[in-house]
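Q: What does the predicted 3D structure of 3-ketoacyl-[acyl-carrier-protein] reductase beta subunit look like?
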Amino acid sequence: MGKVCAIFGGSRGIGKAVAELLAQKGCRLAIIARNLEVAQTTAHNLGEGHLALSCDVSREQDVQNTFEEMQRNLGPINYLVNAAGISRDGLLLRTKTEDMISQIHTNLLGTMLTCKAAVKSMIQQQGGAIVNIGSIVGIKGNSGQSVYSASKAGLVGFSRSLAKEVARKKIRVNVVAPGFVHTEMTAHLEEDQLKKAVPLGRFGEPREVAQAVVFLLESPYVTGSVLIVDGGLQLLT
């Protein structure tokens, strides 16, 4: 039997690309998103033996119910990938408080809740791997994304600390920090201008980031690390 992997935000973008690579490796996947119909379509396209679930990661009971469902249908979780995230870009002075809260709850609190649930399961089976999807703006910052940047920067500190907490339990925790990648979240950006700051001269593709995620899931001696996948991005203004 292949390893069991839960991918939150697995119905599209980077999460979907990770699912496709892991399915090729024989993993059994739980594709988890707020939109159940889209998650079901993604799971169906991956072939047989995969599960689609709906979950609001900012709600602890939703997360607990999701892990119980995965346990019943797929078995204990070996891998966790947190790719669910939202962005509400705008200058801080123009950002509504509810938009601040929603970004922090989804991007940071949601990851904390899924990691907490996954670690409980992984301890019982004496091992596992977690990869959280951050962002280059959580490291370098970016004008107009102060709240989003804060949520992703928090993700780095959380992941590095959690890695130290669970290493003796043979559980590894790492972060992938993408730069500009072709996803729905970046569709509104002015690509011609932004890619000038990328030495490779282009936006990345979800599959290219997914390859970094799979590398970290499978690497037995890498934990507490942040792998930047940004084409050598030099400056955000």
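A (community wiki): The structure tokens above were generated from the sequence. Residues 180 and 229 are 9 Å apart (CA to CA). The mean pLDDT is 94.
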